[in-house]
Each structure stands twice: as C-alpha cells, then as structure tokens.
Amino acid sequence: SMNSLIRIASITKLMTSEVMLKLQDDGKLLVTDPLQKYSYYGVDIPLVNNQSPIRLYHLATHTSGFPREQLGGKWGRRV
Q1: Strand partners, 53
Q2: pTM summary value
Q3: CA–CA separation, 16 vs 70, rounded Å?
Q4: Phi then psi for 37, rounded to 5 degrees?
Q5: How many of the other CB atoms lie within 10 Å of CB of 24?
C-alpha cells in the first residue's frame, strides 16, 4: 500500500548516480565539476592535498579523491 515501508538500503546510490548522469546528458552539469560549484555560498569544500577539488564523480563512486595511504602518517613510519 502507499503507507508500506520498504527497506531500500544501498539502492539510493544507483538512483543518485542515474540522476546525475541524466543531468549531465541534459547539459545541466558535468560529473567532473567540482563539488564547490554546487555548495551553498560561503561553504568551503576542502581541496585534496590542498590542490585538487572534490568532484561530483567522487560522490557517485563513493571515493573522496584523497590518496589511499596518507604520506607521513603512522602507516608510513618504519617499525
């Protein structure tokens, strides 16, 4: 019925990516656009390594754009 609750779990990831690609096909955005372009005025989205912007495709692929291993972190030290 209209009031039934349905567990949809991770299916929203697929729906969101499909909408993003449809908007790209319609010329309303590019998946390579920086996230900053669509953020609220005054909200600063951090850059990856102070250089590269987080892009829409990072959101669609659930990646941050950050390197997998951070240099200088505890994983980079010799034991």
Answers
A1: 47
A2: 0.65
A3: 29
A4: -60, -30
A5: 16
Structure tokens at 42: 């005054």
Neighbours of 72 (CB within 10 A): 7
The residues facing 13 across adjacent strands are none
CA of 76: how far to CAs of 50, 66, 79, in Å?
20, 16, 9
Token representation of residue 38: 């669509």
- pLDDT tens across the length of the chain (79 residues): 788 887 777 787 888 899 999 999 999 999 999 999 999 998 989 888 888 999 999 888 877 666 666 666 666 566 6
As given in the structure block, the two tokens for residue 74 are 């505890």
Q: Which residues contact 39 (CB under 8 A, 6 or more apart)?
A: 45
Alpha-carbon distance of 75 to 22, in angstroms, equals 40
* Single-letter amino acid, residue 4: S
Strand bridging mode 47-48 / 52-53: antiparallel
